[in-house]
Design a protein that fits this description.
Helix content: 40-55%
Largest sheet: 2 strands, parallel
Strand content: 5-15%
Shape: globular
Structural class: mainly alpha
CATH class: Mainly Alpha
CATH topology: Tetracycline Repressor, domain 2
Number of domains: 1
Number of strands: 4
CATH superfamily: YbiA-like
Oligomer: single chain
Length: 160
C-alpha cells in the first residue's frame, strides 16, 4: 500500500509557503483588511481594543505573532475554546478571497498537510511529528470545503 503524500510547510519563501499564516495575503473580515492571517488570529486573542490595534498595525506577521505571545495576562479567558474557530475563519477567508491560493490548495490533492517546526506542538508537528498539527488539519478541512463548494472561491463575511 502506498504511503499518503505529505506536504510540509513553514517558511513563506518555500514552495508551499502560501499555506503559512505568516504569508502576506490580506484577508477581509468584518469590513477590516488584515495584512495576514497571523495578524488577525493574534489580535483575536485579546479583548483590549488598543492591544488588538497594536497587533493589527504590526509591520510584519512575525511581529504580530510576537505581540500575541507577549501579554498572556491579557488573553481572553475563553481563548482555548475559540482559537480553532478563529483560525478556521481566517483560513476560510484567505482561501475564499484569493482564488489562486484556493486552486493551489485544492491541487494538493489528498496530501497530508503538515506545518513542520519544532517551535509549535499545537498548530504544527513539533518538528518530530509528535505535535498535533492542527493548522494542517484545518487546511485539509478548508481544502475539502473548497472542493465541495458549488462555485469556486467567494468572499466570506461570517462572524466568530
Amino acid at each position: 500500500m502506498n504511503e499518503p503524500t505529505v506536504i510540509r510547510f513553514y517558511f513563506c519563501r518555500e514552495e508551499h509557503g502560501y499555506l503559512s499564516n505568516l504569508a502576506r495575503y490580506p484577508i477581509e473580515i468584518d469590513g477590516r483588511i488584515w495584512p495576514t492571517n497571523e495578524h488577525y488570529y493574534q489580535a483575536q486573542k485579546f479583548t483590549d481594543p488598543q492591544y488588538a490595534q497594536e497587533i493589527f498595525a504590526a509591520r510584519s506577521a512575525t511581529k504580530a505573532a510576537r505581540l500575541g505571545q507577549r501579554r498572556p495576562d491579557l488573553v481572553r479567558p475563553d481563548w482555548a475554546t475559540l482559537k480553532e474557530i478563529v483560525m478556521l475563519r481566517a483560513l476560510r477567508a484567505k482561501f475564499s478571497q484569493h482564488a489562486e491560493l484556493a486552486l493551489r490548495l485544492t491541487a494538493t490533492g489528498h496530501a497530508r498537510l503538515v506545518e513542520h517546526t519544532h517551535l509549535d506542538s499545537y498548530w504544527a508537528d513539533g518538528g518530530d511529528g509528535s505535535g498535533l498539527n492542527r493548522l494542517g488539519a484545518l487546511l485539509e478541512q478548508v481544502r475539502e470545503e473548497l472542493r465541495a463548494a458549488p462555485t469556486q472561491p467567494r468572499q466570506s463575511s461570517s462572524s466568530v
